[in-house]
Amino acid sequence: MSQHCTSNCNSCVSRLLAAFIVVQLVNVALVHASNQIDVESDLRHLLGRCHSQSDEYNDCMKQVFNDLRAYFTTGIPDYHIKPFDPHHSDYVELRRGDGAHGIGSFRLVLRNVSEYGWSKSEVTKFHADAEDQRIVYAQYFPDKTLEGQYEFSGKMLGTEIKRRGPWNLTLYDYSQTTSVLRVGGPGSLLKVHVEVDRIGGMELHIGNLLGQSLNSLADGVINSMWQLGLPFVKPMINELVSTAFTDIFNESFRYFPLESFLGPATR
After folding, report:
1. Which helix (H) or strand (E) holds 252?
2. Rounded to an integer, what distance in angstroms lies between the CA atom of residue 121 and that of residue 208?
3. Using CA atoms, how far apart are residues 111 and 149, in angstroms rounded to an integer?
4. Which residues, given as ranges, of the chain have pLDDT below 70?
5. Could you report the per-residue pLDDT of 73-112, keeping only the tens digit for each?
6. What is the residue range of the signal peptide feature (predicted)?
7. CATH superfamily label, 70-260
8. What pLDDT sits at residue 11?
9. CA Rg, the chain, in Å?
10. Using CA atoms, how far apart are residues 111 and 104, in angstroms rounded to an integer?
11. Which of 166, 244, 231 is CA-nearest to residue 199?
């Protein structure tokens, strides 16, 4: 009798466990389906207000960009759009000269770069040129923070220099203009150019720049005199950021079916 009861109990437990697992799987499936429907509905609501042939199209898309900030921290996985706050770049390289000869030749590699601040940013201008397949938008950040690892090698006045370590950068009252160009038909590569417009303030730390004992001194000099060097380093910042964003935009937006969400092309 005892064995029979034990057998029945085990059978009941097994059935309850199986039922629980099935319920959980159904709940997960329903939540996923609900989220997908919600995202689809939200995108159609936001983008459906914008009509590509309307005189208000640029202003409408500017507002859409700002309304989409809610997705910056999550991305939109169903459309392979990765989170933008933070967003990541595994590898960015900048070269000047041949890396081995000449005054001022160098190679700078940034690895595992993370950038924060997008969810607090605001698009202030937007312009689309359908004929050239280009969009240009201006963006303001109260603050933006970047961090990662760097590797530097170069020749300065015939002396070889090699450094590597962590770095972090915070920009305040910062604005930039981004140009995104599609170089062919739908699904073709995107080319991104980012131009720094304004930096109101900056804090930069570069680990191992002058050795452990002089790192604080190096930080102090850089952060007190960065305005003087900005005209010289600004083109390099533009190039580094443009290279990183070309990879990021192609990874997330190259195949995004924007046209399917826009409103009818009527005036």
Report:
1. helix 215-253
2. 32
3. 5
4. 1-37, 98-104, 211-215, 258, 260-267
5. 998 888 888 888 988 889 999 888 765 555 668 889 999 9
6. 1-33
7. TULIP domain (3.15.10.30)
8. 54
9. 26
10. 22
11. 231
pLDDT for the residue 109: 93
Q: pLDDT per residue over 180-214, tens digit each?
A: 998 887 788 889 999 999 999 999 898 887 766 66
* Amino acid code (one letter) for 257: P
Q: The tokens of 48 are what?
A: 């459906």
- Residue 136 CA: distances (Å) to CA of 70, 143, 182: 21, 21, 12
Q: What is residue 97's three-state secondary structure?
A: coil
Tokens of 251: 């990874």
Q: Which residues of 202-212 are buried (b: 16+ CB within 10 A; e: fewer)?
A: bebbbbbbeee
Angstrom distance (rounded) from CA 94 to CA 239 = 8
Domain boundaries, the chain: 70-260
Tokens of 18: 């199986």
Separation of alpha carbons 231 and 227, rounded Å? 8
Cα separation, 72 vs 83, in Å, equals 5
Total length of the chain: 267
Closest CA to 193 of 159, 254, 224, 237: 237
Residue located via tokens 């131009």: 195
Helix (H) or strand (E) holding 139: strand 134-156
Q: Please name which of 82, 72, 130 lies closest in space to residue 249, comparing C-alpha atoms.
A: 82
SS3 state at 221:
helix
Per DSSP, the three-state class of 206 is: strand
Residue with tokens 């005036």: 267
- Reading the block at residue 45, the tokens are 């609501």
